[in-house]
Design goal:
Blueprint lengths: L4 H6 L28 H8 L11 H9 L5 H11 L5 H8 L1 H4 E6 L5 E3 L16 E3 L6 E3 H8 L17 E5 L2 E6 L2 E8 L7 E4 L4 E4 L4 E7 L2 H7 L8
Length: 237
C-alpha cells in the first residue's frame, strides 16, 4: 500500500499555482494589499494556493481490488502499518474501510451477517460493500461474485417492475382495452412480416413500420362489457 494513500484520499492537490493572475503582480506583498478585498481578487493578486478536503475513495477501493484472494488479516496489517491510528487524517481513512469491506460474522442457523458498522447496524445479505471477508477461510473476496453464486439481486429496486397503467387492460397479445379521452375501447393489433412496409396506426394516428405491433381496429365497448370488466367511462364527469 502506498505510503501517501491518506493524502490521495483526503486531500486535493494544490490549485493556487494554476490560477492565472488577472491583476498587477505588484500587489503580491501583504503590505501592498488594500484594506478591503474580496476573496476571489485576493487569490488572484497573491497567487496563494491551498488544499481542500476530499472524499475520493477510488484509490483505496482499487487497492482492495488488487488484494482479493489474500488473507484479510495480512491485508489489514499492511493497511495499519501505513495508516497510524494516532494520526487524525490516517485514522479517517481507516474508518472508511467499513464502507468498502464487509466483515462477516456468522449468525444463527449459519446465516452470514455483515458486522456492525460505525452506526452499530448489522446487515443481512445483500450488503452494500463491494468486498467481504469470507468467514470460512478469512480471505478478501468480491461481493458481486457471492451474489451471483447465491442468486441474489444486490439492487432489486433498480429492476422493479413499473406500476401497471390504469388506462390499459391487456386481454391477450393482440387485444387490449384502453381508456382514451375518458372512454374505454377495445383495440386490436397486428404485425406484418414485411419489414419494409409502413401502415397507419389507428391509436397513434401516424404511419409506423408494419413489422411493429400496430392498432388496426378500435371499438368502443358497451355498457354490459364495462360492467363485466369492472370499468366505467369518465368522459361525462
Amino acid at each position: 500500500m502506498r505510503e501517501d494513500m491518506f493524502k490521495v484520499i483526503v486531500e486535493r492537490p494544490r490549485r493556487g499555482s494554476r490560477i492565472k493572475a488577472r491583476y498587477r503582480s505588484r500587489l503580491a506583498g501583504e503590505d501592498d494589499l488594500p484594506m478591503k478585498i474580496g476573496m476571489k481578487r485576493h487569490t488572484a493578486v497573491t497567487r496563494l494556493g491551498w488544499k481542500n478536503l476530499n472524499e475520493n475513495l477510488n484509490p483505496l477501493e482499487r487497492y482492495l481490488g488488487r488484494q482479493v484472494g489474500r488473507k484479510w488479516d495480512d491485508v489489514y496489517s499492511e493497511i495499519c502499518a501505513t495508516l497510524d491510528p494516532n494520526h487524525t487524517v490516517k485514522q479517517h481513512v481507516r474508518d472508511h474501510l467499513v464502507d468498502l469491506v464487509a466483515r462477516i460474522v456468522v449468525g444463527r442457523d449459519g446465516e452470514w451477517l455483515c458486522a456492525p458498522d460505525r452506526h452499530g447496524n448489522s446487515t443481512a445479505p445483500p450488503w452494500r460493500q463491494g468486498y467481504y471477508v469470507d468467514p470460512d477461510d478469512g480471505r478478501l473476496k468480491e461481493s458481486a461474485k457471492l451474489w451471483k453464486v447465491r442468486g441474489i439481486d444486490p439492487n432489486p429496486w433498480r429492476r422493479r417492475e413499473p406500476p401497471p397503467d390504469p388506462n390499459v387492460r391487456v386481454l391477450d397479445e393482440m387485444r387490449e382495452l384502453r381508456c382514451i379521452d375518458g372512454n374505454w375501447y377495445e383495440i386490436g393489433f397486428r404485425k406484418e412480416s414485411d419489414a419494409r412496409a409502413w401502415t397507419f396506426d389507428l391509436v397513434e394516428r401516424k404511419l409506423v413500420p408494419s413489422a411493429q405491433r400496430h392498432a388496426v381496429s378500435k371499438r368502443q365497448i358497451s355498457g354490459t362489457e364495462l360492467k363485466a370488466f369492472g370499468l366505467a367511462n369518465t368522459s361525462n364527469i
